């Protein structure tokens, strides 16, 4: 899967990876390597169901993260973290 965007509806164990299933604007599913998932899961917590997510070119990002909310509020080029 090259691109999907929507809400996480399932997280399934599939052999050597975890499959993230997304429904919404661009539904689909994508794998995350088990070793990566353990590190991410420890930081983010196990409750991914219901969170908005975007996956593109092997990169996943949650759309409700503080960085994404800041970008939506201030625009693409006016992020507070980018100010000198």
Report the biggest beta sheet as strand number plus sense, adding barrel if it closes.
Answer: 5 strands, antiparallel
Number of strands: 5
* Total tally of structural domains: 1
The percent range for helix content is 10-25%
Task: Give the CA-based shape.
Answer: globular
Widest sheet: strand order? 3-2-1-4-5
Q: What order do the SSEs take from the amino end to the carboxyl end, as H and E?
A: EEEHEEH
Outline:
The protein has about 80 residues and is of the alpha+beta class. The protein has two helices and five strands. A hairpin with a 2-residue loop joins strand 4 (about 50-55) and strand 5.
List keywords for this structure.
globular, disordered C terminus, 24% helix, 2 helices, 84 residues, five-stranded antiparallel β-sheet, alpha+beta
